[in-house]
Amino acid sequence: MCGIVAYLGSKPAQNLLLEGLKRLEYRGYDSAGLAVVDRSGLRVIKAVGRVSNLEDALEDLGGLQGSLGIAHTRWATHGGVTESNAHPHRDDRHGIAIVHNGIIENYAAIKTYLEDKGHTFTSQTDTEVLAMLISELYAPAEGVDLFAAVQAALKEVTGAYAIAVVCEKEPNTLVVARKGSPLMVGIGNNEFIVASDASAIVAHTTQAFALDDYNVVRITHDGFKTADINNVPVTPKIMQLEFELQEIELGGYAHFMQKEIHEQPKSLANCLRGRIDRRDGKIILGGLAPLAKDLTRARRIILTAQGTALHAAMIGEYLFEDLAKVPAVAEYASEFRYRNPIVEEGSVVVAVSQSGETADTLAALSEAKERGAIALGVINVVGSSIARETDAGVYLRVGPEIGVASTKAFTGQVAALTMIALFLGRRRFTSADQTADLLAHLEAVPDKIARALEHDALVRKVAERYCERENWLFLGRGYNYPTALEGALKLKEISYIHAEGMPAAEMKHGPIALINEGMPAVFIANKGRQYDKVMSNIQEVKSRGGHIIAVATEGDTDITKYAQDVLYIPDIPEPLSPLLTVIPLQLLAYHAAVLRGHDVDKPRNLAKSVTVE
Ligand code: G6P
User: Fold this and answer.
1) Which of 64, 193, 483, 563 has a beta carbon 3.0–4.6 Å from 578's, enabling a disulfide?
2) Could you tell me what percent of the chain has a pLDDT over 90?
3) What whole-number distance in Å separates Cα of residue 100 and Cα of residue 160?
């Protein structure tokens, strides 16, 4: 939720840290700060608001010298958005500073203990407690250096953390550690860049390793040493970061969300590439191969996720029942994990997540595994916590998603779930010919998304017409009921317009009372089994004064009799239709937000990756 970047090398740390913070700002943006150690000691500067405010504050001070530093961009969990609650936090004795992502759950008890020991706190954060605890344990004269003090402190805490720590008494040392919150060490040429997200590393090096839970790393100019909190040595697995710098830059677009919406023909083509064998009517998913037999015998599939990923999971529920004939259910991870779920033999749990770090999704997955389920991941970020917790999985391969409102990850998730459903269906009962037909349509999806995107200017006009309205409805049936939920969520997230998504038939059971003159009602009315029923629902809203915006299939001219505005998508079989119907809804939300003057990529109160429950 927050972003960490740290540097040890020979270049001046400040600008490198600021540049890293800007790349991580999408993960949290209510305050930022950095600490640099040089020969004269530790300097900490913080500012409320965006990273640019921190940059201004540093400029006013004439900048910080030093080639060792830590930095943070925050999304508040403990304590309000103030300068004193911003990171880095310092101790009160040794010149120690720390940045932290996650939550120290037992911070209150530790704080009381430390207050009794005479420490004075200046913030309301759990992180300051950790800084003081490290300080309390730090005793270089007795052989407890910064690395050992961090290890000792982490033995006392419960909760989640990714931390980077420096101490002015050890100006050649950076200590970083992780449990439950991502952290990665980039290995450059005589320099190290640590970050919570690879996007802050790739500009400097593509060689990196991800920390495992309870790993603590000591980084010095001579190299690095990794051990766990009990000082058992660990050999990290060094990997090659695969994405290019241009993937995390705007490249001529006004916003990352806009770029990511328009990237979907390409991202979906990447997601499908090499996985479709049309000739044999087969899906090739290397990540599932080791478990193919167990999966074929699956008796129930539980899909679990949060946010947009849950909407993809809900489409997955339809796909698994329809294409693979396996009973399936999609559920909020946050609800699943706490309701004593029944996980029968033969259950497969599928965790769907862009980041692979969502705390609730990770916890739900662990709960299901504990109860004997096979764990699959449908994840974008390679090597993320959820990906590592699963027995097998399918990566989305849609590239890094920076916009807080998820778009290309959603279509990637739906495509991946479609492929898993076809993979199972083909092994269970579908013939090669039946599968090949759908595969041909699936292969055509990237081009059809490109066609749907051609209506961008028209969608903007519709957004202009209605963007001042404060209440919207999004209605759909079957496969496109979850798409309606997703359309409403997109509008809420970035336009701050109240929108409700629901099954079109449910409207009559209450929400129809909301319809008044001119209220925008977006209907997903593509050609399919329930088209006629949707048309009846449209008329029910229209006759009560609602303004109908319909997402319809190209060639459907009848719909213009009922809808004031029609957004067309190419014809496509129903199980694949959400991959297209969502496109105009993403564009609608994007344009409405821009027209209302909002910061599309950094919507208020939201975080890209929610790593706390
Ligand atoms: C946050 C993001 C959403 C995202 C959800 C789940 O709320 O703002 O866009 O859908 O988390 O994230 P995940 O990384 O698990 O897909």
Assistant:
1) 483
2) 82
3) 9
Q: 286-290, 429-433, 545-549: which range is least confident on average?
A: 429-433
Q: In angstroms, what is the span from residue 560 Cα to ligand 1's centroid?
A: 35
2 among known catalytic residues: yes
Q: Would you say the CB of residue 312 lies under 6 angstroms from ligand 1? A: no
361 touches ligand 1 (CB under 6 Å): yes
406 CB within 6 A, ligand 1: yes
Mean local confidence (pLDDT), 280-300: 93
Q: Which of 182, 168, 234 is nearest to 5 (CA)?
A: 182
Q: Which of 335-339, 419-423, 475-479 has the lowest mean pLDDT?
A: 335-339
The torsion defined by the Cα of 480, 278, 416 and 429, in degrees rounded to 10, comes to 80
- d(C-alpha 203, C-alpha 244), whole Å: 8
608 is catalytic: yes
Question: How far, in Å, CA of 92 to CA of 557, rounded?
Answer: 72
Collect all residues with Cβ–Cβ distance below 8 Å to 69 and sequence separation of at least 6.
6, 7, 13, 14, 17, 34, 35, 36, 37, 166
pLDDT score at 434: 85
- H helical segments located in 470-530: 480-495
CA of residue 600 relative to chain centroid, distance? 16
d(C-alpha 179, C-alpha 195), whole Å: 14
Closest-lying ligand 1 atom to the alpha carbon of residue 409: 16
The predicted-structure confidence for 46-93, as pLDDT tens digits, reads as follows 999 999 999 999 999 888 999 999 999 988 777 788 888 899 999 999
358 lines ligand 1 (CB under 6 A): yes
pTM, whole model, 2 decimals?
0.89
Contact by Cβ (8 Å): 177, 215? yes
* Per-residue H/E/C for 391-452: CEEEECCCCCCCCCCCCHHHHHHHHHHHHHHHHHHHHHCCCHHHHHHHHHHHHHHHHHHHHH
Q: For a ligand 1 pocket test, name from 75, 358, 396 the mutation site with the most ligand atoms within 8 angstroms of its C-beta.
A: 358
Tell me the average pLDDT of the chain. 94
- From ligand 1's centre to the CA of 310, what distance in Å? 9
d(CA 276, CA 174): 46
Q: What is the mean predicted confidence (pLDDT) over 15-20?
A: 96
- Choosing from 310, 332, 357, 406 the residue with most ligand 1 atoms within 8 A of its CB, the one to mutate for a pocket test is 406
Q: Are strands 31-38 and 41-48 parallel, antiparallel or unpaired?
A: antiparallel
Report the separation in Å between the CA atom of 95 and the middle of ligand 1, taken as the mean of its atom positions: 37
Distance 121 CA to ligand 1 centre (A): 34
Q: What's the half-sphere exposure (Cβ side, CA atoms, 13 Å) at 538?
A: 28
Q: Is the CB of 606 under 6 A from ligand 1?
A: yes
Identify the pLDDT of residue 507: 87
CA distance 210 to 235: 11
- Alpha-carbon distance 537 to 525, whole Å? 10
Task: Locate the ligand 1 atom nearest the alpha carbon of residue 361 and give its number.
Answer: 15
